[in-house]
């Protein structure tokens, strides 16, 4: 005589955000930023993205692009940054009907372009960021190269760090006037990410 007992366990866990963008996301107008969130949950959650004003976002194929993984445990929001209202605190929200809803805020800050130029040298430095006015130090100057330091940028916090530093030098500086066209072919441009 055998007795068979079937036991069924239905496990459920509320959503917990396990991963998202680290720190502050910095961007300049015209740039795309991608925000993401991952969660553990049983059953898999339904995701919602909230704008900096708190309203729900939807894919519009122009400004906002939302993707969710096949297993529904991760999601991403791609935003085309174009105006001041695009910056602020976004949030991903995961809800599976079990326990509390999980909410993860992600801050996106604007990095405006800062132009700095010298009256004595034919160069200009453009910084995508909100750093203080750069104080340049030229070292190891030679006819074909030099080292340029920006000592007052050392130790800047994340909100002040430039996203990109562009150093432009005129090949021939004898005829540079105030109305000089920096987009001309006589300008050599070097792009450097911050920290290089």
UniProtKB/TrEMBL annotation:
GO terms for molecular function: axon guidance receptor activity. InterPro entries: Cell_Adh-Cytoskel_Orgn, Ig-like_dom, Ig-like_dom_sf, Ig-like_fold, Ig_sub2. The keyword Flavoprotein does not apply. Keywords: Disulfide bond, Immunoglobulin domain, Signal. Residues 14-104 form the Ig-like domain. GO terms for biological process: homophilic cell adhesion via plasma membrane adhesion molecules; synapse organization. GO terms for cellular component: axon; neuronal cell body; plasma membrane. Gene3D superfamilies: Immunoglobulins. Pfam families: Ig_3. The keyword Disulfide bond applies. Residues 1-18 form the signal peptide. This is Immunoglobulin domain protein. It comes from Trichinella nativa. The lineage of its organism: Eukaryota, Metazoa, Ecdysozoa, Nematoda, Enoplea.
């Amino acid at each position: 005589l055998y007795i068979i007992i079937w036991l069924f366990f239905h496990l459920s866990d509320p959503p917990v955000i396990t991963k998202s963008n680290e720190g502050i996301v910095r961007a300049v107008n015209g740039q795309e930023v991608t925000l993401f969130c991952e969660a553990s949950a049983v059953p898999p959650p339904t995701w919602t993205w909230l704008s900096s004003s708190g309203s729900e976002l939807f894919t519009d194929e122009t400004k906002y692009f939302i993707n969710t993984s096949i297993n529904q445990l991760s999601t991403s929001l791609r935003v085309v940054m174009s105006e001041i209202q695009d910056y602020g605190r976004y949030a991903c929200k995961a809800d599976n009907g079990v326990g509390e809803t999980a909410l993860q805020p992600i801050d996106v800050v604007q990095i405006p372009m800062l132009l700095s130029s010298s009256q004595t040298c034919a160069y200009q430095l453009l910084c995508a960021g909100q750093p203080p006015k750069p104080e340049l130090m030229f070292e190891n100057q030679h006819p074909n190269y030099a080292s340029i330091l920006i000592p007052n940028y050392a130790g800047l916090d994340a909100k002040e760090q430039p996203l990109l530093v562009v150093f432009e030098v005129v090949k021939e500086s004898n005829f540079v006037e105030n109305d000089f066209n920096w987009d001309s072919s006589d300008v050599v441009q070097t792009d450097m990410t911050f920290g290089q």
